[in-house]
Specification:
catalytic activity, 40% helix, 13% strand, 447 residues, Amidase, single chain, Amidase_dom, AS_sf, Amidase signature (AS) enzymes, alpha/beta, ten-stranded mixed beta sheet
């Protein structure tokens, strides 16, 4: 059997496609070949019987459209540049609507019930020249009931969730870019488990129109690539207000703050040992790392988030559950029942506490002189088994505050599975977070 792991650089593929050294039809064919070879073992993509014919047809039409648009400019020097993702194949989590592909959201509800206009984020991909390779598997309605996807590093282990298919598809080299979503930990945790880079922008930095909601106060579109350069290229297309020119962060390295206290104690011993080793590598590369006592009330923060989360997801499904409740899986139905038990008053109190928590977290970081938070991206390596997607607790406070975060591959556990390191920045600092993350990525690689 072909190896289930393969590196596909988004930046290199996009550059080759824009320069003409590669072409969209060849890229589409490679993608289909790779999916055919490894997806029967990984199960990252929602099955699509005519995927090859559809994708090759879309690639051929993309080439024809570009040739037609530039026919009046025969002088190569005067032709407009190809769009940034011209011919790049992309996986899209199956709660994000794509024209021509049914949306099932990991459920057995009739697809027509979940249909609607194409998601705004997919419009941006298509406008940038991307080709949609297909829908990727999600936990049912991006809650907790896992899909069938397996971790390409070891198929007996979970890839994380709920964006399981997107993370596994990139790790297995089926596509160089894939979209996910994060409500609590559904982008960052799968990136850590699958040994790739995942980026969750600031809340509301990317439009969620056309995305089936989980909890609207937290839902954020994110994405995966093999490296920070790849997620940065995608950010330039997908994020509102992205600067035209981005590059290495100027000035000294950022000060990194480690949030010591009850939150960090939720990580397992192996993750904490790895974090300590990573801190030493970064110190050796010139980074200042400070410990910041914070979140003494962490258990209350967890309760506050899930009070809001469950309340919102229950109300997002009011109509569908009334009609099709018997088709929902047990984990999802339980989450909805929990949400309906939350009173309006409890929800409003949790919202107020969230705003206070966000301010308090930012004040603690600022008082310590830290630019970024530095934490494990998950409590440890991917757990054994496919019945759970693992715990999102390492992502929870940052998602609660709506902060931008990135997961970087950072070594391996004793069992050989990947570990991830999470960097979190202030709200709205997304370009700086990725620029600084590139430096951290380089330092860890050198170490």
């Amino acid at each position: 059997m072909d190896s289930l792991l393969r590196h596909r650089s988004l930046v290199r593929e996009a550059a080759a496609l824009r320069s003409g050294a590669d072409d969209p039809v060849a890229a589409a064919r490679r993608t289909c070949d790779r999916i055919d070879a490894v997806d029967p073992h990984v199960l990252a993509f929602v099955p699509e019987p005519d995927r090859r014919a559809r994708l090759l047809d879309e690639a051929e039409r993309a080439v024809a459209a570009w040739d037609s648009a530039t026919a009046g400019a025969p002088d190569l020097a005067n032709r407009p540049a190809k769009p940034p993702l011209y011919g790049v194949t992309v996986g899209v989590k199956d709660i994000i609507r794509v024209d021509g592909l049914p949306t099932r959201a990991g459920s057995v509800l009739p697809p027509g019930v979940l249909a609607g206009p194409q998601a705004a984020v997919v419009d941006r991909l298509v406008a940038a020249g991307a080709l949609i390779a297909g829908k990727t598997v999600t936990a049912e309605f991006a809650v907790t009931a896992p899909g069938p996807t397996r971790n390409p590093h070891h198929v007996a282990h979970t890839p994380g969730g709920s964006s399981s298919g997107s993370a596994a598809a990139v790790a297995a080299g089926m596509v160089p870019l894939a979209l996910g979503t994060q409500t609590v930990g559904s982008v960052i945790r799968p990136a850590a488990y699958c040994g790739i880079v995942g980026f969750k922008p600031s809340f509301d930095r990317v439009p969620t129109a056309g995305v089936i909601p989980n909890a609207v106060s937290f839902d954020t579109v994110g994405w995966y690539a093999q490296d920070v350069a790849g997620v940065t290229l995608a950010a330039s297309v997908l994020c509102d207000g992205w600067p035209a020119e981005t590059g290495p962060a100027p000035g000294p390295p950022p000060v990194l703050g480690v949030p010591v206290g009850p939150y960090l104690r939720r990580a397992d011993d192996e993750a904490l040992a790895a974090l300590q080793a990573q801190r030493e590598v970064l110190r050796g590369a010139g980074y200042t790392v400070v410990e910041v006592p914070v979140m003494d009330d962490f258990e209350e923060v967890v309760t506050q988030l899930f009070t809001m989360n469950r309340y919102e997801v229950a109300r997002a499904h009011t109509e569908w559950y009334a009609r099709f409740g018997d088709l929902y899986r047990e984990q999802t139905a339980n989450a909805l029942h929990e949400g309906h038990a939350v009173t309006d008053a409890a929800y409003e109190e949790a919202r107020a506490r969230r705003a206070e928590f966000r301010d308090r977290l930012d004040a603690a970081r600022g008082a310590a002189g830290a630019d970024l938070w530095l934490t494990p991206a998950a409590t440890g390596p991917a757990p054994f088994g496919l019945g759970s997607t693992g715990t999102s607790v390492m992502c929870l406070p940052w998602s609660n505050a709506g902060l931008p975060s990135v997961s970087l591959p950072a070594g391996h556990a004793a069992n050989g599975l990947p570990l991830g390191l999470q960097l979190v920045g202030p709200y709205g600092s997304d370009p700086a977070v990725l620029a600084w993350a590139a430096g951290v990525e380089e330092a860890l690689g050198a170490g």
